[in-house]
Structure formats: structure tokens, C-alpha cells
């Protein structure tokens, strides 16, 4: 207390004076003996909410004790683990208790955790657990999502800024329910921006804490699951011979980040849209052949998806695999262990919270594995919230393309976006996708039931009649892939039959095509059998080039790598599979001429196209004649094409209009005569 201060008052500090009110000492901001400005008062209020800034402890300060050790009233000591309750692990063990409750420096805390319960809770116990979790969560000021089933918890939670509520709730959970939460591993991330906190708490009842479609009697026991490896042991085992590593996450998560194991270890991406696809994938004979006799290593974001997956794999294959391992704590824990260089991890770890993704904390974010589905530039951010129009999974769209596509109301914008899996599998509608998914997963569930219960047949409600699952690449002969060291995905395909080849023919002959650019003759606008295509991956491009010379629609196709030369957009707008249209051919022109018609215009390359390629222009036509011909349609540019050597007019050129409406109106003049010649129009990029 300052000298000369009245009794019951504290000394004024540099930022304000203190006054007593109802027995509580409060700070009142002042400035030069006067009240602060409104901005200064708001700043002071913010400081009060956030609490005092952390100051370094002096060298002589005694060690700070945790609340339990300090003997504070109401402190919860760490929970002792009951004997025999720890999971089977190899290598160094991990701390499975809630982290100490010491204060963290600013920001918020996110915790990820899961816990299975075997045997599951009874219906009454389950109801009580749901009520307890929600009541205590709201009391501790939690936000986020709790997915709770009779088989356990799957949670991603945040606390309010400056609040220890997350850790307090976790300690209470362990104290109240040591079975099964005494062994739970809570993965805390501290010091995050307050904007990443959830305002609301969602408690979601579910049949499974991971939706594999294996709830109840279909769920394989976790007691026969894989061996848990701590990050350092997982890292070391990745380099051992005869090893495969399987990413159990969804394909869109793998697109932006994954493990890149050392040479000799095979990486496998199951290319799943959601977890319910896993049983069907594991039951495939080609998958089991790849895993046979191998040490199989699995990983996912936090470890939860590997629990049932490793158990199901061991039930499916038994002694056919050497051993099954899974990453304890998942990618999240691995990146905290290898926070400086990321270890064998490349790219970003997709997470189901407001961060969207994260990498190794101290490694510069230079690796971008994903790409925009529209312009194909490197991109790994799903914040545009674009989803596949057929299957509903997130797709990568860069900020620039998202702005363009959001303004497009022609049906070719965001609502027409498709993921790479749907393009590769040639799924074109939601009904088609749903039919295939229901049949595939229902058949897989029946197989799991027969496996676990040793019965010959079981009827699963919702199963569709027997039919092929996903279409195989019919007509594609097995061949050795061509060398593609630089990873080229752009191909030239020529010598195609103009009459017999269309988009469906190309997709069947060369699986993996995502974009098709039909090459038209500049003078006539007709297609004579050549295309540029974009392949989904470098591997599929190499397989396509290996088929150079094979017959496609009764003609030997010419296939070669064709990387972009010079500046330009690739792939062009309007060339995505399902949106590109084959231009008219010479046969179409002959038929139209026989009927006294003009060959129809090709479709627009993109919705806001305002430019025409004009053919059949008489040599005596001047610019004023063109303006007069198109009437009220405002022209902003005319560019005539000439012979480079002689400078002679070639009878064609480009005409650009001021607005898309002007261009649409002008397109009605296709085939009309200008100075005695029919003018042929076609959309141009």
C-alpha cells in the first residue's frame, strides 16, 4: 500500500487509479489526471478480460507447483491407471493423462481425443454419459463437437480465451469415469488465435464414433487390432524392408498432405470418399494381394480411424500379413514430435476444426501437394467450401477461381464442380453415385458379418441387386508404363476417327482423362481427329503413352507427352470432362450442306465468352461493314488474320463484343450473308 494512501485504497498504477467498490478493488483508467478516451477504455477492458501478461520469473523465485501438488482446495490429482488397462504398445510410451493445468500464454486451446469402450455402455449408461458430457462441457465453457456412441467418445473441443476449461473438463472426465478414460490420450494444442474457437457445443449421438457402417454386431473387436507405435518408432519402422504404409483417411485429405516413406516402402492411398468405403476396399482381392506377406503400417489424423481399420484388416487377412502397426496419436502427435523438419511428412495435415489444416510447427510451409480443380495451380486450402456436385466431398478451388465460379449462374460454376474420383470413375449424377455406394457398402457389410460370425449368408437391409461395383477400364490392355520422369500430365492424342470417337470413347480408351481440348481447323472450325488431354496423374499419363499405336475405334491412335510451351492457360475453361463438347466434323458439315444448312456453332468455352472467330469474310469487307452487319451489338475489337509471309488477308479473324449479351445476340447471325458470302461464327477464347 502506497505511503499516504487512505485506508482501504490501493496505489494508482501507471495505467490508471484503483478505487474500492463493494469490497472489490477495480481499475479505473485515467490519462493525465482525466478520464481516458473511449478507445483507451475499450483497450483497458480488453486487457482485463485477457488477464495480466505473463512475466518471466526472477532467478530467485521458487518453483511453481501444479495445483494438485500445491495442495489447493478442490484440485484434482492425476488419475492412477488401473492395472492391465494400458493398450499394447511398442517403443516409448506416451502420456495418456490430461495435461497439467498450468496457465498457458494467451490464445485458446484445442483438444482432440477419442476413447473406445469395450464392452459398450448399456443404454442407461450411455444416456447418463451423454447428459454428463454436455452439462459439464457447458459449465466449463467448451465449444466444438462431441460424437458419442455406446462404443465411446470422439471429440474435438476448444475453450474460451484465457480459460482452463478444456483441461478442467478432461480431468473431471478421468476422475469420474476411470473406466475407460484413465488410459485416454488427450492431444492439446495451445496458443491458437481466439477466432479458431467454437462458440457452440454440439453433442451428437451416434451408432459409431467413426462411421464405418460396422456398428453393433458388425464391429470387429479392438483386442485384435494393430500394434500401436509411438511417432519415433513409427518413423524408424517406415524404413524397414518389406513394408507398406496405408493412409486410412479420405482421399481429399490425402490430396494436401501425406507420408512420403523412404525408398523401398510402398505408399497406398485407398482413395476413399468417406470411412464407410473402407470395408469394401479391404475386401478387394487386388488390395489383399498388395498387402500379402507385408508389414502393414496405418495412420490417420489422430489415431481413431486406425483402431477399427487395423482390427478389420487382421480379421480379413489373418496370417497373410506379417504384422499390422498403427501410429499412436496419429499425424497430430507425429508432427509435434518432428516439429522442426516434419520427418517423412509432406504437405499439410487436414483437420476437422477451424484451422482446416496445419503442418510441422517450425517447418516453413513450402510444400503444396494439392491443386485447384479449375486452373490446376498449386493449392491446399479448402476454405472456399466447394463440394463435388455428385458425391459431396470437398474439392480444392483457389480464391481466384472461386470468385469467378461463384458469379457464374449458367450451371457451369460451383454447382458443376466434380472431384477427381468422380471424374476418374465416370460418375455423372448423384443418383448414380448413391446407387453404386449403397450396393458396394452393403455387400461389404455382408462380407464382414460372414467373416466375424462364420455364417454363409446374411441379408442386409438396403442391399441392391448384384451388379458390378465400380466399372473397370474395359478394353484397356495391361502394359508397362512409359517413362515419365518429369511428371507430365498433358498429352496429345491424334489420328482418331472423327466419325466414331467422342468423349465416352476417349474415357474408355484412356482412363484418367479429366479435360479434353478438341483441336479445330482454324479455317473451317471442324474437328479432324486430334485432341489435347489432361490426365488425373502422371502415372495414368504414362500408361496412356504406353498405348501409343493401339487401335481406338478401328484406327491406331498416336499418343505422346505434350507439355505446355510458352504462356497460356491449361487446361482451358470449358474443357472439363462432362462439360466439353465435340465440335462438328466434316461429315456433319456435309450433311448440313446437303440440307442447305450452315454447320452449327460449337458450344461456349466458358459462360462469359464475348469473342467470335469469324470465317468466310470476303476480301472487300471493311471494318465499317462488320459494324453495320452486327447492328446494335457493340464491337470493341476486330483483328483480321493475314499470311505471315505475304501479308495477304486470309478471310478470317476475331471479333470481340462489349458484353456477353451483345455476343449472344450476334450469334443469331451465324450463317447470314455479308456482301454475298455466308459468315460463319464460332466462339473463341
UniProtKB/TrEMBL annotation:
Name the keywords, alphabetized.
RNA-binding
Q: Name one GO molecular function term.
A: RNA binding
Keyword Aminoacyl-tRNA synthetase assigned to the entry: answer is: no
Query: Does the UniProt entry include the keyword Chloroplast?
Result: no
The record's section on Gene3D superfamilies has: 3.30.70.100, 3.30.70.330, Rhodanese-like domain
Q: Which superkingdom, per the lineage?
A: Eukaryota
Please note every region of biased composition (Basic residues).
17-26, 43-52
Q: What's the protein name?
A: Rhodanese domain-containing protein
**What lineage is this protein's organism placed in?**
Eukaryota, Sar, Alveolata, Dinophyceae, Gonyaulacales
Annotated region (Disordered) at 1-26, 43-103, 576-601
Q: Which organism is it from?
A: Alexandrium monilatum
Domain RRM: residue ranges: 489-564, 610-685
Residue ranges of every copy of the Rhodanese domain listed in the record: 239-343
**Basic and acidic residues compositional bias: what residue ranges?**
89-98
